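To the wet lab folks,

You asked to see what we're planning to order before we commit. Fair enough. Below is the target structure as tokens, and below that is the sequence we designed to fit it. If anything looks off to you, flag it before the synthesis order goes out.
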């Protein structure tokens, strides 16, 4: 017996990213936190939290199945508040305004997927590709 195919609603997917630099540490510590809402292979809504040090391979990730995107919004608001309290700053993704419906298999990637972030020079620090948020 075949199960029905899942229905994906890409317009409701989102991903928020925050970064901070702990200047009081020697050397400074670069950290990130990411919260994403997506659907898994079966169409269930999944809230993914990732955090760790920028430039380190080992990071932490927690995946949680949630009832709906509306349920994720309450969590999103709380995470935004907590990130602000911990002095993280939001990072704008260059693909944030990308309409996923315009991408077709085999087509060229959109310019924003291959171009460097417009503020890259402003936020890049050092020659080793480390990222920091400068005022």
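Sequence we intend to order:
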């Amino acid at each position: 017996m075949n199960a029905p195919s899942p229905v994906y609603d890409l317009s409701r997917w989102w991903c928020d990213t925050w970064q901070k630099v702990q200047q009081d540490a020697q050397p400074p510590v670069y950290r990130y936190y990411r919260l994403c809402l997506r659907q898994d292979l079966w169409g269930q809504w999944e809230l993914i939290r990732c955090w760790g040090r920028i430039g380190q391979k080992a990071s932490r990730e927690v995946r949680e199945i949630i009832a709906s995107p509306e349920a994720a919004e309450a969590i999103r608001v709380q995470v935004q508040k907590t990130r602000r309290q911990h002095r993280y700053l939001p990072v704008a993704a260059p693909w944030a305004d990308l309409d996923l419906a315009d991408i077709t298999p085999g087509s060229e990637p959109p310019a924003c997927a291959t171009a460097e972030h417009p503020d890259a020079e402003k936020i890049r620090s050092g020659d080793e590709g480390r990222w920091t948020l400068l005022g």
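Structural context that might help your review: The two ends are 59 Å apart (CA to CA). Confidence is low (pLDDT under 50) at residues 109-135.

Thanks,
Computational group
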